[in-house]
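hey can u check if this looks right to u? its 82 residues, i copy pasted from the old doc so theres a chance i mangled smth
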Amino acid sequence: MTWNLFPLVIIAVLLAYLWTLKDNFRHDKFVYTRHQLWGGVALMISTLLTLITPIVGDLRRTAAGAMNRRHNRQIAGKRGPE
């Protein structure tokens, strides 16, 4: 259940940070800082996707292989560990 709230917390923190920047900086400094912040967020997201893609692909391949082995045992009349 807490994993469902995690993205909302990150969005709330980013919005609070932007609101604080807008209140405390001049317009030109705010625009520059906002640009740097979104660049950092984009870099974090692209790094996350780069790192998680092979992991998810391996999990899907492993899970599909396990399902096929279990299905083949049932067809052949062999019962595997349950």
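Residues 24 and 66 are 56 Å apart (CA to CA).
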